[in-house]
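Table 4 source record.
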Amino acid sequence: MNEKSIQKVVLRNCFLAKNAGWEVEMANSKIGTTASFFILVGVLAAVDQLTKYLVVEAIPLNTGISVIPGFFNLVHVHNTGGAFSIFAGSGWRRYIFMGITVVVVAAIAYAYGKVGKKDNWTRIAYICIAGGAVGNLIDRIVLKEVIDFLDFYVGKWHWPAFNVADTAISTGAVMLLVSLIWKK
């Protein structure tokens, strides 16, 4: 073998080794990405549950504390509907909300894995939506309803009470919409 042949073999082997290492790195990256998704979703759901626990301990059911008179109260209410009390009621609606939540979180987890490594905006949007959904799902499973406590209003016009999970879902949805618009 001459010198040029040896260089070609060395370069080819380095290229193959580098690519093989890259494949392993990408596989480990996918595992890490999936784990980080579920960890962050869990943290967000835990924060939601902690805030609800604090409200339950501090404020009697169906009462509230004025924080900014004429604008904001902390309240303790229960909601059998969806976000912002949409479709409130009991019975079969609870099971539909739970089933939809499981499907949506699974779809978001799948979509999260497909997002580019550098698209943190979309990743955060997915984490917010899934974390909020899981936070409210825990309430539906354990309590058969969701605890809401943030009450914003002007005069006598009140926005329906909501919670950290609803805020995360709404924030994530807006972020996802912005992400979709940016990509067009």
